[in-house]
Design goal:
Elements lengths: L5 E5 L18 E6 L2 H7 L6 E2 L9 E7 L4 E6 L2 E6 L7 E5 L5 E9 L3 E5 L4 E2 L3 H9 L5 E9 L1 E6 L12 H7 L1 E4 L4 E9 L14 E7 L5 E10 L4 E5 L1
Antiparallel strand pairs: 1-2, 2-8, 3-8, 4-5, 4-8, 5-6, 6-7, 9-17, 10-16, 11-14, 11-17, 12-13, 12-16, 14-15, 15-16
Length: 241
């Protein structure tokens, strides 16, 4: 397996008061990170640092990141990769599989054998998701999470390398220049994300506590980087046991 640039062990604490307390795992949950947001956007480090075929198949794997060359987005859920590919034509093709060989210039990865399920108890704007999760997680270290439900308001993008801003551009500029999508009607979707107070300007933006992707269900699933919207009350929030 390709060696990650960073290995971030974290012992996950019990999540939300009011739910049955989770038992801490017998060994730390390992979150692995290849690359960084500043590396991509400020220093032009967009070559492949790891390829999916060196990590998959892996049951219970969850991950997100950017495709090498900034040519799309990568999301992994339950050991299946969802890749949104671009080639500078402002078009996106989506592929799903357990044997994809796409390279990533940024990838955040964890294997989570078991999850505890809570219910989102109020509508949560994406802009407030980091703080909402802080209340539920109760520690500082990097933590994967999932949110599953029907979404009426959700915005996401897929980065398109050849038409993206040059180096020294901000994360916000790259998002704005990406190929943008939004929910039309009710969207059956899953959010896959990583939360941390310790990794601003590494795998979260300098002003955010989370990096989140979406997997849109359907005959041809789609994926991308979440920019905004609202998580409705009643969605399922999954945190590692």
């Amino acid at each position: 397996m390709t060696s990650p640039l960073r290995v971030l062990p974290v012992l996950l604490a019990a999540a939300c008061a009011g739910n049955s307390p989770a038992q801490a795992p017998s060994s730390p949950l390992e979150v692995q990170v290849w690359g960084s947001l500043p590396g991509m956007h400020k220093r032009g480090e967009i070559d492949a640092l790891v390829t999916l075929d060196t990590l998959l198949p892996a049951e219970n794997a969850f991950a997100l990141g950017a495709r090498a060359g900034l040519l799309g987005e990568i999301t992994v859920a339950d050991g299946t990769a969802y890749v949104a590919r671009t080639e500078g034509t402002r078009e996106v093709s989506n592929t799903k599989g357990r044997d994809l060989d796409d390279g990533a210039c940024l990838l955040v990865w964890a294997v989570v054998p078991r999850w505890q399920v809570q219910t989102i108890d109020r509508a949560v704007p994406i802009a407030e998701l980091g703080e909402y999760l802080a209340e539920k997680i109760g520690h500082d270290g990097p933590t994967p999470f999932r949110i599953v439900g029907l979404f009426k308001e959700l915005d996401w993008h897929v980065v398109d390398g050849p038409t993206a801003p040059g180096i020294e551009a901000s994360c916000e500029a790259h998002s704005a220049a990406g190929i943008r999508f939004q929910a039309e009607g009710l969207l059956n979707a899953q959010l896959v994300g990583f939360w941390s107070t310790e990794h601003k300007a590494i795998f979260t933006r300098h002003d955010s506590l989370h990096h989140t992707h979406v997997i849109v269900s359907g005959a041809e699933p789609r994926t991308g980087h979440v920019d905004g919207g609202v998580i409705p009350a009643g969605c399922a929030l999954l945190l590692p046991e």
